Structures are given as C-alpha cells and as structure tokens.
From TrEMBL:
Domain OmpA-like: residue ranges: 1-111
Keyword Membrane: yes
Protein name per its UniProtKB record: OmpA family protein
Pfam families xref list: OmpA
Organism: Muricoccus roseus
Keyword Transmembrane: no
Main location: membrane
CDD domains, A to Z: OmpA_C-like
Organism superkingdom: Bacteria
Localization in the cell: Cell outer membrane
Keywords, in A-Z order: Cell outer membrane, Membrane
A Gene Ontology cellular-component term: cell outer membrane
Amino acid sequence: APARTYLVFFDFDRADLTDRARQIIADAAQAVTSTGTTRIEVAGHADRSGTPQYNQRLSMRRAEAVAAELSRRGIARNQMSIQAFGESRPLVPTADGVREPQNRRVEIVLR
C-alpha cells in the first residue's frame, strides 16, 4: 500500500497543538489502527524565520507534541520514528527570515 501522509500545521513560533491539529492527529491514529500500520514517521519542520539552530529545536518540539498526542490516542511510541528537520525541508521555498505557515508543520507518514 502507498504511504499515507497527514500534515499538521502550527502557529508562528509555537509547538502547541491547535484544535484542527488534534483532529488531524486523531484521523491519523484511526488510520493506523484500521490499516494495521506498524511504522509511523513523525517529522517536524519549521519556516525560515529565526536561526537554523533555533528552528531545529522548534521542529523537534513540534514533532514531540504530535508524537505525544498520537501516544495519547493509543499509538505505541516504539512504532514511531521521530525526526526534526528544522528549516531544511520547506514545503514552500522562501528566502531566509520569511514566515511561511505551510512550512510550520509536522508530517505524519504511515508506511
């Protein structure tokens, strides 16, 4: 089966989950259960506002927040691989320093 990807977006400089984010994570958790997926990649990203070092940490905090919510929804931590890419893999390429909502995200990939 092809991988299924869920995108969770974040407010500027934040790692807390919005109601919409929680809904998407709930959908992903349900898909994990219904499809019997055993490998889940949780990858955090940031936009290019702020230093690369700061954004690396921010993207990790975002990934951890999503992983914690997946865990709360019954998904085992050992099924997840959690990664942080900082500002290195934008969905929308921008100049440095640019705030871009699409790049402030966590990707949940069900393998």
